[in-house]
């Protein structure tokens, strides 16, 4: 058994020691002698105090000491600690769109169950959920989620699950089965990772290959074009192309889309006064001097401004689609050279049905995800005290009440002079 607030038990111990010292100061009536002048002595009890080598009233002393220690132990918040060496495990299984093979992720998770360690399985994309070990086979055969993975929500779920497991183990191991891509790490991930008081074992799986590298524009654009730097690395001779239209779409463009092509209408340098705007496309967000152009209200929004209005919309036509982009850039400036903006450009020009590039997290991010230690998290640091109060506290308080009544009963039976 351990105490979460040992200072309370220490105070009770000091008070108990003080009680023993008080019982060493014996108080008793002096011896009576028959004298003829006793009629002049006032009729009242006379007590004297003296130091004793052995405390008197041992039963009363025992009751008082136990009462103090019981109250102190109750306020010290006792917790029953399990047998040393017991370990539990939390496994986070990534099933987001970043995972190339859900079967591979499930296979790695199954391998962790073979050693018999009590394990809680949590599957996550943007939302985590606890699953049973018997559900792993169905998870492997389920379609890949289209949602972006979130390591932040995964760490929150792991912290909650570990609080319950810490009552039955002295340490909890956290295992992350994931490709660990840039899109899965947000501004809260580092702080939430810091709240896990142990190492994170990372079992990396392959991330989904970027099919957007197998396409190109049907007509190359110059490097001086605001969209040019983003398309500088496009392969030549690609079989699948995107048709970039700077003016109104023609009948030929519509026929191209119906046959399975992608038409992107984007007047990127239209004369619109740029202002500071926030633009979000998928997982990429930028704030820059951009202009807005009115676009069609049909189709689904694939990009939005900071105020929630659509910055680009996509409409399905036949086997392909037509995408209308209402983002304009100033002719002068270096925004076209910024990597985040270039990724946004490639996302908006990517053909319909193609996956957007996933990028693996760098070695620095992997290092702080793993942590500086190699040890599992100690259960005493994971235990949710407010959510899981110890039942010993109530029993100790009940014992203290019984001892208090017993002390009153014993004291009432003592002789008045010994009180």
Describe this structure in words.
The protein is an alpha/beta fold and about 425 residues long. The chain folds into 3 domains: about 1-30 and about 45-80 and about 390-419, no CATH class; about 85-210 and about 360-380, Rossmann fold (3-Layer(aba) Sandwich); about 210-350, no CATH class. About 30% of the residues lie in helices and about 25% in strands. The protein has 11 helices and 19 strands. It has helices at about 5-25, 60-75, 100-110, 135-140, 150-165, 190-195, 250-260, 340-350, 365-370, 380, 390-415, and strands at about 1-5, 25-30, 50, 80, 85-95, 120-125, 130, 170-180, 200-205, 215, 240-245, 260-265, 275-280, 285-290, 300-305, 310-315, 320-325, 325-330, 375-380. A 9-stranded mixed sheet has the order 10-11-12-17-16-15-13-14-18, sandwiched between helices. Strand 15 (about 300-305) and strand 16 (about 310-315) form a beta hairpin. Helix 2 runs antiparallel to helix 11. The longest helix is centred in the last third of the chain and has 22 residues, at about 390-415. The chain is elongated, with a radius of gyration of 37 Å. The two termini are about 35 Å apart.
């Amino acid at each position: 058994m351990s105490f979460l607030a040992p200072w309370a038990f220490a105070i009770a111990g000091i008070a108990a020691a003080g009680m023993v010292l008080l019982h060493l100061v014996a108080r008793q009536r002096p011896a009576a002698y028959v004298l003829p002048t006793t009629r002049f002595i006032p009729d009242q009890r006379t007590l004297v105090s003296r130091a004793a080598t052995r405390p008197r009233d041992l039963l009363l002393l025992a009751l008082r000491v136990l009462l103090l220690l019981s109250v102190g132990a109750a306020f010290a918040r006792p917790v029953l600690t399990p047998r040393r060496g017991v370990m539990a495990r939390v496994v986070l299984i990534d099933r987001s769109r970043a995972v190339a093979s859900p079967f591979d992720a499930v296979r790695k998770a199954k391998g962790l169950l073979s050693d018999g360690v009590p394990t809680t399985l949590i599957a996550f994309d943007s939302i985590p959920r606890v699953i049973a070990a018997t559900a792993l086979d169905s998870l492997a055969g389920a379609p890949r989620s289209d949602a972006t993975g979130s390591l932040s929500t995964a760490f929150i779920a792991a912290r909650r699950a570990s609080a319950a497991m810490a009552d039955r183990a002295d340490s909890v191991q956290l295992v992350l089965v994931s490709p660990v891509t840039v899109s899965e790490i947000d501004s809260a991930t580092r702080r939430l990772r810091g709240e896990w008081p142990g190492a994170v074992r990372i079992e990396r799986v392959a991330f989904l290959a970027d099919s957007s590298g197998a396409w190109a524009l049907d007509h190359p654009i110059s490097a001086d074009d605001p969209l040019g730097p983003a398309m500088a690395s496009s392969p030549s001779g690609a079989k699948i192309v995107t048709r970039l239209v700077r003016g109104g779409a023609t009948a030929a463009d519509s026929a191209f889309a119906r046959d399975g092509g992608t038409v992107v209408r984007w007047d990127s340098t239209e004369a619109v006064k740029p202002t500071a705007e926030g633009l979000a496309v998928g997982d990429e967000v930028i704030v820059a001097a951009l202009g807005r152009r009115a676009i069609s209200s049909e189709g689904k929004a694939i990009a939005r401004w900071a105020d929630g209005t659509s910055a680009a919309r996509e409409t399905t036509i036949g086997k392909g689609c037509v995408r209308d982009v209402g983002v304009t850039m100033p002719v002068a400036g270096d925004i076209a050279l910024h990597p985040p903006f270039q990724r946004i450009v490639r996302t908006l020009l990517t053909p319909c049905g193609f996956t957007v590039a996933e990028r693996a997290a760098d070695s620095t991010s992997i290092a702080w995800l793993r942590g500086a230690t190699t040890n599992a998290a100690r259960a005493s640091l994971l235990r949710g005290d407010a959510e899981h109060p110890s039942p010993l506290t109530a029993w100790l308080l009940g014992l203290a009440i019984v001892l208090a009544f017993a002390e009153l009963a014993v004291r009432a039976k003592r002789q008045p002079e010994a009180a």
